[in-house]
UniProtKB/TrEMBL annotation:
<dbReference type="InterPro" id="IPR050922">
    <property type="entry name" value="LytR/CpsA/Psr_CW_biosynth"/>
</dbReference>
<dbReference type="Pfam" id="PF13399">
    <property type="entry name" value="LytR_C"/>
</dbReference>
<dbReference type="InterPro" id="IPR027381">
    <property type="entry name" value="LytR/CpsA/Psr_C"/>
</dbReference>
<feature type="transmembrane region" description="Helical">
    <location>
        <begin position="32"/>
        <end position="53"/>
    </location>
</feature>
<feature type="domain" description="LytR/CpsA/Psr regulator C-terminal">
    <location>
        <begin position="383"/>
        <end position="464"/>
    </location>
</feature>
<keyword id="KW-0812">Transmembrane</keyword>
<keyword id="KW-0472">Membrane</keyword>
<dbReference type="InterPro" id="IPR004474">
    <property type="entry name" value="LytR_CpsA_psr"/>
</dbReference>
<feature type="domain" description="Cell envelope-related transcriptional attenuator">
    <location>
        <begin position="114"/>
        <end position="284"/>
    </location>
</feature>
<comment type="similarity">
    <text>Belongs to the LytR/CpsA/Psr (LCP) family.</text>
</comment>
<dbReference type="Pfam" id="PF03816">
    <property type="entry name" value="LytR_cpsA_psr"/>
</dbReference>
<protein>
    <submittedName>
        <fullName>LytR family transcriptional regulator</fullName>
    </submittedName>
</protein>
<keyword id="KW-1133">Transmembrane helix</keyword>
Amino acid sequence: MIGGARPGSDRDDHTVPIARVRPARGRRGWRTGARIAVALASTAVFAFSGYLWSTFGRLQGGMATSDVTSGAGPDGAVDILLVGLDGRTDAQGNALPEEMLRELRTGDSGSSLTDTLILLHIPEDRSRAVAYSLPRDSYVSIPDGHGQHKINSAYGRGKATARAELQSEGVSDPAELERRSNDAGRKLLVRTVEQLTGVNVDHYAEVNLLGFYQLTQAIGGVEVCLNNAVDDPFSGARFPAGHQVISGGDALAFVRQRHGLPRGDLDRVQRQQAFMAGLARSMLSTGTLTNPAKLNRMFDSVQQSVVLDEGLDVLAFAGQLQGLAGGNITFDTIPVEDPEYDTPHDGMAVKVNPRKVQLMIQRVNEGLPAEQPRPDSLNTSVVDVLNGTGITGLASRVQDELNSEGIPVGNVGNGPETATSHVLFTPGNDEAARFVAEHLGGLPVEPDPALSGGRIRVVLGDDYDGPGAQHFAAAPRLQLDGLVRQSPEQPSGGTITADGIPCVN
């Protein structure tokens, strides 16, 4: 499994020092750490596959497909689940040979963990795209009675259940078992994501370790820059300081390293962003697009490592996206309540609130800011907080949360017991009420004629799990055109731009 404490190989795959060094530029930004590098290439592999197929149709018949989704919904928008699979097989389900696993610097071939999940939304007019990163350790409810677990286990749980059922029905052919159980795992993963995000997944695209490895080699490597030399036996990352071109196993090690970095996961995510910018730059460069040998190698890597749902017509879809410029592709991370949540059975996980996630995605999909702008009417409003639960001190903690956001709080106390949380407001003061409700996890709002003077009343019920119950934290937005982060909060590394090669830790 990528990211585990397993020493890497001593090989130095395609590492070419470059004799120019630029200092990183300081800035601020909170990031949720990603777990694996595979799906840094997922979006790029899928988007570029469309370009390749529209130019060279020979891939169309050689792709692996899976019966996963029901196709596009009636709204005209397209929502695609991009999956980076920590599996040690190719797209056809064949186990990778031992020598390839050694090159990948990984272990056995039995994993079915989905180590990176990206939900890509493209509106009906195809004018822009938003890619939502779903942390692999998000603690969610998995359908079909599987209970609460990390989202990256949904695929494997669905696969294992289906495999056991198929075997009990007398299915014994290994290839059929693998194919049908994989389809079941994918379907359960799709349903889990739909339940978390409130989005109907129209299409599915999956890329594995082999795809990431081969793609970086096919394009001749990706240029990166390090502030300091590193030598990490856990990830196999051994690099000098400065600019260099990396590919294959070194590329995997570069984006996997966490140990020995000043800020751990924060530095690792900064590396991944820098690498993703370099990958996109290399794939779309003239030297790649006009080089038949590179294109053929890219064709081969896509065919061997990408699985698409059967209903996705890539040629038609690529034609619809011809006007989509890189600057109109935005990367977001879903809101996180607690990045170090101690689960009953699954160790440390990332606690997320589906209601908050769905509200954020709905706003961004509609072209609105991820967070509602502060309305002027809030300055003349007063917010009362009533605790309708048996949890002592909950109203006071919510008051502290509201005060930290500059929201004026009036009366705080206990109220009648209630099962559901909601926000009441003076008729006509709905804009301020919705702002307060959104900051408390997207609570429902309703007018109350008994209130006056711009007063807002927050009623906390037994279902309340917003700020004050846990701590929310959301990763700021990433823009592909320059890869500029917004909503800065905590210290971070240098700004990532597609126009230059930033030096990172």
